[in-house]
Specification:
Layout lengths: L2 E11 H20 L4 E20 L2 E16 L3 H11 L4 E8 L2 H13 L5 H9 L10 E2 L2 E2 L39
Antiparallel strand pairs: 1-3, 1-4, 2-3, 5-6
Length: 185
């Protein structure tokens, strides 16, 4: 079976992590090793981050969470069993989790950032610096037409051939019929 690289971001109970963080991390690692996963990187991603909306689980309303991220290699056939095990056995401290399969062409770069960058929220930090609006290629065209906003004011749908100052009155898309339409005027 193919061995693939996975990334799992865990949203953990911040109060339980503060009091018993080492045993929770050990439990996360044990659950992965139970399915013969090779842990490549395991580290905290962000501590005590406020959640966008309260999550109620086991009669506790969580407003903050501790995020922990683990990169691991495992046979792809065992991922479903691991997900089932996480949902059933980690109910006292696991609020949510998200697992992604890492594309092999990005694996080395992602693991390099995960190992070297020690800032909280390192993944978001790296993605925000990656591109800015000024880096967009202004010569990019789609269907022979420049993308809106690249060569002047935005155009409305169906206005490819008409100059931008020649729009019909009455709002966008009104006053003009498409050729071949069966609708009466």
């Amino acid at each position: 079976m193919p061995v693939e690289l996975y990334e799992t971001l865990y949203m953990l109970d911040a109060n339980k992590m503060a009091s018993d963080g080492d045993s929770i991390r050990t439990s996360l690692h044990a659950s992965l090793e139970k399915y013969n996963a090779e842990i490549v990187v395991s580290r905290s991603w962000d501590e005590g981050r406020k959640i966008a909306y309260p999550i109620r689980k086991q009669n506790i309303t969580h407003k903050k969470a501790f995020y922990h991220i683990i990169y691991y290699k495992m046979e792809s056939t065992k991922q479903i069993d691991l997900n089932t095990d996480m949902r059933l056995s980690m109910t006292d401290y696991l609020i949510r989790y998200m697992t992604s399969n890492v594309d092999p062409k990005w694996a080395e770069a992602i693991l390099d950032v995960a190992n070297k960058d020690q800032n909280p929220g390192f993944a978001l930090h790296g993605m925000q610096e990656e591109s800015t609006p000024t880096e967009i290629n202004p010569g990019y065209e789609m269907d022979g037409m420049p993308i809106d906003g690249m060569d002047g004011p935005p155009r409305e749908r169906g206005d490819r051939d008409r100059p931008t100052g020649d729009r019909p009155s009455g709002g966008p898309g009104r006053g003009r019929r498409r050729e071949g339409s069966d609708k009466p005027e």
